[in-house]
Amino acid sequence: MAATTPGATWWKGAGGPLLPPVAEVPAGGGGTQEEARRTDGSGRDEATKGASGMSPDLRTRLGDVELANPIMTAAGCAGAGRELAQFFDVARIGAVVTKSVMLEPRAGRPAPRMAETPSGMLSAIGLQGPGIEVFLQRDLPWLLARGGRAVVSIAGGSAEEYAELARRLSMAPGVTMIEINLSSPNLADRGRDFTEDPAAAARVVRVVRASARSDIPVFAKLSSDVPDLVGLATACAEAGADGLSMINTVRGMAIDTATMRPAVAGGTGGLSGPAIRPIAIACVYRVHAALPDVPIIGMGGVRTGSDALEFLLAGASAVAVGTVIFHDPSACVRILREFEEALEERGVARVGDLIGAAHRPLGATALR
Amino acid sequence: MAATTPGATWWKGAGGPLLPPVAEVPAGGGGTQEEARRTDGSGRDEATKGASGMSPDLRTRLGDVELANPIMTAAGCAGAGRELAQFFDVARIGAVVTKSVMLEPRAGRPAPRMAETPSGMLSAIGLQGPGIEVFLQRDLPWLLARGGRAVVSIAGGSAEEYAELARRLSMAPGVTMIEINLSSPNLADRGRDFTEDPAAAARVVRVVRASARSDIPVFAKLSSDVPDLVGLATACAEAGADGLSMINTVRGMAIDTATMRPAVAGGTGGLSGPAIRPIAIACVYRVHAALPDVPIIGMGGVRTGSDALEFLLAGASAVAVGTVIFHDPSACVRILREFEEALEERGVARVGDLIGAAHRPLGATALR
Amino acid sequence: MSDFRPVQMRSPVLTVRRVDAYHAITVVAPGIAERFRSGQFVAVAVGGEQSSMLLRRAFAIHEVKPDYGGTVEFLFAVRGRGTAWLAERRSRDLLDIVGPLGRPFPLPRDPVNCVLVGGGAGAAPLFPLAHTLRRRGCRVDFVLGAADAERVFGAITARRVAETATFTTDDGSFGLRGQVTEVLPQVVEDARSDVIYACGPMPMLREVTALAARYDIPVQVSVEETMACGTGVCMTCVIPVIGDDGITRMTRSCVDGPVFRGERVRFDDVGTIPFDALGAPGWKTHGDDAVQTREAG
Amino acid sequence: MSDFRPVQMRSPVLTVRRVDAYHAITVVAPGIAERFRSGQFVAVAVGGEQSSMLLRRAFAIHEVKPDYGGTVEFLFAVRGRGTAWLAERRSRDLLDIVGPLGRPFPLPRDPVNCVLVGGGAGAAPLFPLAHTLRRRGCRVDFVLGAADAERVFGAITARRVAETATFTTDDGSFGLRGQVTEVLPQVVEDARSDVIYACGPMPMLREVTALAARYDIPVQVSVEETMACGTGVCMTCVIPVIGDDGITRMTRSCVDGPVFRGERVRFDDVGTIPFDALGAPGWKTHGDDAVQTREAG
Ligand SMILES: Cc1cc2nc3c(=O)[nH]c(=O)nc-3n(C[C@H](O)[C@H](O)[C@H](O)COP(=O)(O)OP(=O)(O)OC[C@H]3O[C@@H](n4cnc5c(N)ncnc54)[C@H](O)[C@@H]3O)c2cc1C
Ligand SMILES: Cc1cc2nc3c(=O)[nH]c(=O)nc-3n(C[C@H](O)[C@H](O)[C@H](O)COP(=O)(O)OP(=O)(O)OC[C@H]3O[C@@H](n4cnc5c(N)ncnc54)[C@H](O)[C@@H]3O)c2cc1C
Ligand SMILES: Cc1cc2nc3c(=O)[nH]c(=O)nc-3n(C[C@H](O)[C@H](O)[C@H](O)COP(=O)(O)O)c2cc1C
Ligand SMILES: Cc1cc2nc3c(=O)[nH]c(=O)nc-3n(C[C@H](O)[C@H](O)[C@H](O)COP(=O)(O)O)c2cc1C
Ligand code: FES
Ligand code: FES
């Protein structure tokens, strides 16, 4: 019908979005990447400014990878960095964790997909995404060209799908890490997700670790809604996970008192935001106590630099910011700044000194 | 030393609290109870005022018991009603659920016992209380004399302790219901709590049901932090529970970023308040779907009348208000008023029509 | 390009006014005012720094002015907690505001006849559009509807700016009794409209779009889907929209909209995943019938 | 009796002032003002209706006045989120406030010599007490300490009301350098004090209590324990206190305090459950060594 519309010719911009949110950057070129770093990377200098001994050393290690600082985005809350680049330089933060990518395009769940809850939200997106091909062609190169570190989250319906995704990602240059989103329905198990069965989760981790390039750390992302979190974490670590990400959203529900129906289509959704932070902290603390050598990316309701600090003290080596990005699109850089200030105030020289400090006996908490 | 203090004689009120929060009411006497009803029970009339067909019928059934309305206090958040009576007439609400009572006095956990979290709080009180004897002598008679309906929460370290508590309560007149707090450490199971083992939980329910007077409904209170909530709920119902209360607090933790130690002594605490409401709603919805004939007292973050409505739509027959009482000591009557207004706005004639309405197919939600 | 990027600012409130059933807030926000194009919106944080309300509220920009370096006005009806909080703001309070967001109304190249159709507060973005169209020499006709007289917004402005202004109310308390779609055909015929712009509830947009098809004229609709972020990262605001390639995609209404070509929106399928949408269950080789994710994502 | 019951009200803010390092808020709250006795406090809801901060903040009542039917003033230092929000209030804002709460300072029957010892903002409740004591013909001496000059509160009032007023600061920027407990013995001896009233941090209260024992005079201390409800229902504010029967109980400082007889408070055991406290692990026949509850309760 559009073609037969007489007026269709005189639109200034017909059809598609008029406003690509940011200028297109030619994909993949190493030179472009350098250029982008030089022009836009100033923030990175700011983050380490005055490193004359006064500023804390913000670097953190996740497996074999070192990040400039421990603040990342959480999967599914920042796309692949492109929209947020309107608000800050994505190269300034430790890494961008992408929305979980699957092999094929996926339309996700029907609307309504979300409801606001006290200090949190319920969501049920259903892993909508364009699939790995578009991701590799369009999203990943864009992020790399901007100088961002890419942690790619993957989701599948079977261990084989996960393995295939890891293989494809390993062939593309520039992937810093892979995060396995295990909260995806296992098609062989009537849709129960992989975190509900430690053996299935371990199998996914094992095949991904085997398929991914060896210099790419593989992190397994866990949910707190499991019978035995430490058991699951141990199973993943033993299957070869280089680290753990936790937590995913918590199972929740809201009823719309006007329609008297569940507020999110399909009934339950995932609860996220500051409301769940105490649950996330408890998980990180418990798993770090059991597996002190396994690095953890902590997430769940990080809103301020002090919240990020809380996760590190509980045992995380880095933190990811999710829902709060919806509230404040510049949250990641604000949190990074607040976090750095918090370290300065406390005279903490190195991020590494903080990790798990809340576990140490009272006398030992004094930091250099 | 106090005795040797020369000035000790000239204090207006020496030693104990100067201000008993409210006038003492002679314990137990039926006449007094009637009197208290007549003088203070005006609120009750208000709640059912204009029952000329316009006002909704707020009565609700919990097993064999009928309550005047579905708003109750949550265990441990209202003492035995005495302190709140300074702010409203405790006879106006459906029932007062008392702080869990144990056989012996209990000092509870060391301070700090709480931390504020976004839209919630963490607490670890450790079941501090005076023990059943003092409860029966002092607290229960006070509540009954004021015309309050007493739902007594009990906690023990073994099935036998629970049974003994039920026996003692059954001998006292005036107990409306017994709520079994199963989130108490099972001494025979290295302190794991009873909800973590459905068989142990069922055993407690069975002996309590056997020991309690047959006209006193027994509700089992569950936590959401269990491997299989529906399984646990089913086990409790099959063991004779007349209904279920859910949810207890959710395991959580906060780290004090100043001291770098857990904010609550002992590390983890229980998360409560509006933050956990979506978790609680999901639990009530799920259990009601599985066991539609088992009445549920819903709780977890009820702050407004609309929140109470949400729990009823999810499948609860009554709701309990906990943490929000700390925020607003008159919360229960405010919520009752808001709840009644919400029903009027929606033209709902009977509370009973709402229970579980969110489960019905779309067309069926229209209410008479 | 940087001109088009939305900005985030803490903007001082200049005035809070009542306009019939609505509240109008004007903030000082030069960055937003200078980038603004008709049809775009702002996303406002509500409840203050320790708010329990995490999600921003979206409001169409109703007017921008050059005063104080640039001001932005939006208007709103109190619906829930967030708008209740906004209604209590006073001048000099600060609002955390992001904008301008979204795809603006495409403008005709030539001075054609435009009819602007709005429902209730949904009419707000049509006013800056009307001014712009007039500046370009277009003829503007207004059709505004609402539940009652109080909720008809901007009648005086509409009369001033437009060639004709037709009003409808559900209760007949102002203008004609009925729906805007009942009077629209007459207006289109009388004004020999070349294009329709419409803002309002989905059912209205669907009917307006059907009507435009009947008259074979283009229609641009601005949808109002629930949004969590407004900036394109959360994927909560999707509706099924047909792309240039004929393929239906679950499309974000915050960045790819809120303005869409009416005929591209699959109104009847809003709230569902159409079976033929890109990546719908069964869409490709994958037999993933169990698409219920337990977790978000 | 009903005179003593606390009330809950939405009180309009009359004034917000800066007083050195502190903020002073005066609200119109007749019900609270008329019931007030020195040493009592109010519990204030913070963050507005959609606040993420659920717990009330406790503040000692610093002054009540008969204006507008009764006003109540409290003063505070900004420490965290809640006090930061309070500091931003303006006149005519409404505060949800509960009070008066807690056990007031017991008053001597006879006109005896009283020394009032306070640290920082902790000194606030001593001022209404001083006025009351003066009205009863008591001699009042003040000893006020703080970190620095800015944090010494009420020096002028203290000088006016009291026979003598001695000040200490940690940095020596005002009065004597050092702690209140260093100067207190001299004051007690010079003034021939019959009783001590003290407000401030636990370590200070402990030392003041020890000092009172040495002089064999009674001491009333006002403690500042973290509180969730302020009304006696949550059991978060307990400290070990020895009862008339000699038994130590975990005692609520909100309703059984905040004022206690100093010698009854087991300062050294604050933050623990003393082994001999009523219901402590192993206290009775029960071998319940596993007292760690997983859940609250
Ligand atoms: C692009 C766009 C432009 C809009 N322009 C206007 C306008 O100019 N004037 C006006 O009055 N309203 C407008 N709305 C609707 C406005 O966003 C909602 O009325 C407002 O978010 C309701 O917030 P609340 O806190 O009062 O309601 P609540 O019910 O408390 O909101 C809860 C959550 O749902 C979301 N939500 C609720 N209703 C809507 C809705 N209708 N649309 C989108 N999100 C919703 C809120 O953003 C919030 O996240 C617009 C919406 C969109 C998407
Ligand atoms: C009986 C009593 C009287 C008090 N009188 C005064 C006074 O007159 N002036 C004054 O400045 N302060 C007073 N305080 C301390 C005051 O309550 C705290 O400074 C205030 O609660 C801190 O709130 P926040 O939101 O800034 O801190 P946050 O750290 O954000 O508070 C988090 C939680 O901890 C509680 N909390 C934190 N610090 C304290 C504390 N020191 N005491 C009790 N609870 C605390 C808060 O109530 C809140 O629940 C008094 C405390 C008590 C118990
Ligand atoms: C809208 C939304 C989408 C999400 N999508 C994903 C996803 O694709 N993959 C994933 O592993 N986690 C996803 N998550 C979970 C987040 O990454 C994060 O684990 C969780 O939200 C807790 O962090 P937060 O409280 O900071 O949001 C999503 C969360 C939200 C709210
Ligand atoms: C301070 C505190 C004490 C509690 N004590 C008990 C208790 O003694 N017994 C019990 O069954 N639940 C206890 N609970 C749990 C509450 O009854 C309720 O299940 C939970 O807090 C969720 O409701 P809420 O969010 O409305 O507080 C306690 C909760 C709090 C916050
Ligand atoms: S509102 Fe978040 S993507 Fe549109
Ligand atoms: S603060 Fe709640 S009992 Fe004292």
Automatic annotation (TrEMBL), chains A, B:
Enzyme Commission number(s): 1.3.-.-
Keyword Signal: no
Highest taxon of the lineage: Bacteria
EC class: oxidoreductase
Cofactor: FMN
Catalytic residue positions: 184 (nucleophile)
InterPro entries: Aldolase_TIM, DHO_dehydrogenase, DHOD_1B, Dihydroorotate_DH_1, Dihydroorotate_DH_cat, Dihydroorotate_DH_CS, Dihydroorotate_DH_I
GO biological process: 'de novo' pyrimidine nucleobase biosynthetic process; 'de novo' UMP biosynthetic process
MF annotations from Gene Ontology: dihydroorotate dehydrogenase activity
UniProt cofactor note: Binds 1 FMN per subunit.
GO cellular component, one term: cytoplasm
Domain called Dihydroorotate dehydrogenase catalytic: residue spans: 58-343
Membership in a protein family: Belongs to the dihydroorotate dehydrogenase family. Type 1 subfamily.
Xref: NCBIfam families: PRK07259.1 (NF005574), pyrD_sub1_fam (TIGR01037)
Designated name of the protein: Dihydroorotate dehydrogenase
Species in which this protein is naturally found: Marinactinospora thermotolerans DSM 45154
The encoding gene: pyrD
UniProtKB/TrEMBL annotation, chains C, D:
Cofactor: how bound: Binds 1 [2Fe-2S] cluster per subunit. Binds 1 FAD per subunit.
Gene Ontology MF term list: 2 iron, 2 sulfur cluster binding; flavin adenine dinucleotide binding; metal ion binding; oxidoreductase activity
Cofactor(s) required for function per UniProt: [2Fe-2S] cluster; FAD
Listed SUPFAM superfamilies: Ferredoxin reductase-like, C-terminal NADP-linked domain, Riboflavin synthase domain-like
Every FAD-binding FR-type domain range: 6-107
Keyword set, alphabetical order: 2Fe-2S, Electron transport, FAD, Flavoprotein, Iron, Iron-sulfur, Metal-binding, Transport
Lineage, broadest ranks: Bacteria, Bacillati, Actinomycetota, Actinomycetes, Streptosporangiales
Annotated residues for binding of FAD: 82-83
Protein name stated in the entry: Dihydroorotate oxidase B, electron transfer subunit
Gene3D superfamilies xrefs: Dihydroorotate dehydrogenase, electron transfer subunit, Nucleotide-binding domain of ferredoxin-NADP reductase (FNR) module, Translation factors
InterPro entries attached to this UniProt entry: Cyt_c3_hydrogenase_gsu, Dihydroorotate_DH_ele_sf, Dihydroorotate_DH_Fe-S-bd, FAD-bd_FR_type, FNR_nucleotide-bd, PyrK_electron_transfer, Riboflavin_synthase-like_b-brl
Organism from which the protein derives: Marinactinospora thermotolerans DSM 45154
